[in-house]
Design goal:
single chain, BirA Bifunctional Protein, domain 2, 2 domains, 4-stranded mixed sheet, 13 helices, elongated
């Protein structure tokens, strides 16, 4: 007999969670639209060279791939693990606008490896991206929108963890091959000093000491003063620390912390990075940052920044009250006159359930709050409270 059990990281989305996810998706997109962002819907499946362009190994290792069966010359097709490269392609290659472009999206991605053992391998995400604008004001606008998004989705107190890739880039330099960089980045992510020592053999002692300092030094604003005093006095490092200081003051978050070892997406992020964490979640519920040049492979190198919010994670946390939708019920046979009245109610936005023989309003209590029943009157039909 076939085993139809489904592992947790491929779990179905059942009605309560689907209701919550849809409400979050609508709220996110409505908020993005109010800030001037246009909705795009890239395909779930694309040729791998488009999906992975400019993303580095993180996305590549997390992408499902298979051979095109439709006569595509043996090209590999992939299921998207991240929507940002697709949005960058749309901006750079398809829209090809000369000025600033603001795009937003919502949908599912698929991960070959879950982000942690209990994570879904099909995250539902929404996000906003700004192309064609650089500078602190752009970063600040996207960070403020990220904070507002979390509040809109029910997060009462927003805590952002902020970093900047320029600090690690200035310490590593350009003298390492890709594998060497990946090994150092993995060590920094896990704050593993032994792994860092093993990976950093081609770096100077000063650079290794500085990277070890980054591993030990994270937390509140005092971190910035300590790093400014103890890190090598390189202009790019000092400029990055000052950018982070300004953004942390003005981004609108309730709390901020600083961690320059949080280097997720290091291969394509080029500036500010930020993530939002909640005590109830094992992984970040939002990630964002600056990724200039991500559209270069599609013909245009554009400054860009944006963020992704993980709606499926948030929907599991019960941040907002799950109010059952209201409905009216109709009992008995529905003739043409009653059907016309029911249709008019549905056009007004009401949900109307026509009960079958033997079915009662009580049978709907898990799906709806039944508020009214359609009754016949001398003049036709009316709604009677239940």
């Amino acid at each position: 007999m076939a085993n139809w059990s489904i592992p947790d990281n491929f779990a179905d989305i059942l009605p309560r969670q689907a209701r919550c996810l849809e409400a979050m998706r609508r709220a996110s997109l409505d908020l993005f639209a109010s800030h001037g962002f246009e909705l795009v819907q890239p395909p779930m499946v694309e040729f791998v060279d488009s999906l992975l362009t400019g993303t580095g190994s993180d996305v590549s290792n997390n992408t499902f791939r298979f051979m095109d069966q439709s006569g595509g010359g043996g090209r590999m097709i992939g299921l998207r693990a991240d929507m940002t490269p697709q949005i960058a392609r749309i901006d750079a290659h398809i829209l090809n606008r000369p000025g600033v472009t603001r795009l937003c999206y919502a949908g599912s991605v698929l991960h070959a490896r879950p982000m942690h053992p209990l994570a879904s391998r099909e995250p539902v995400v929404a996000g906003a991206e700004i192309f064609g604008a650089s500078g602190l004001d752009t970063d600040l606008q996207i960070m403020r929108l990220a904070v507002e998004t979390l509040r809109t989705l029910g997060v009462q107190s927003v805590h952002l963890d902020i970093g900047h890739t320029a600090v690690v880039r200035a310490l590593i330099g350009e003298n390492l091959n890709d594998e060497g960089v990946h090994s150092i980045v993995r060590a920094l992510r896990t704050k593993d000093p032994v792994a860092l020592e093993a990976a950093a053999g081609n770096l100077s002692a000063e650079a290794v000491d500085a990277l070890q300092l980054l591993m030990r030094t994270f937390g509140d604003v005092a971190v910035l003063d300590e790093l400014a005093a103890k890190l090598p006095q390189k202009p790019e490092i000092l400029a990055a620390l000052e950018e982070v200081r300004v953004l942390s003051r003005e981004c609108g978050a309730d709390e901020v912390s600083f961690d320059f070892c949080d280097v997720h997406g290091y291969q394509y992020l080029t500036g500010i990075t930020f993530a939002a964490h909640l005590p109830q979640s094992a992984q970040a519920v939002l990630r964002g940052g600056r990724y200039d040049g991500v559209g270069l492979a599609f013909g245009r190198s554009r400054p860009a920044c944006g963020f992704t919010v993980y709606l499926r994670i948030l929907s599991d946390l019960g941040l907002s009250e799950d109010r059952l939708p209201e409905c009216c019920v109709v009992r008995g046979r529905v003739d043409s006159h009653l059907a016309a009245y029911v249709a008019s109610l549905r056009k007004e936005g009401r949900a109307v359930v026509c009960l079958f023989e033997g079915e009662s309003p009580e049978d709907l209590r898990e799906q709806f709050r039944v508020t009214h029943e359609v009754v016949r009157t001398a003049d036709g039909f009316a709604l009677a409270p239940l």
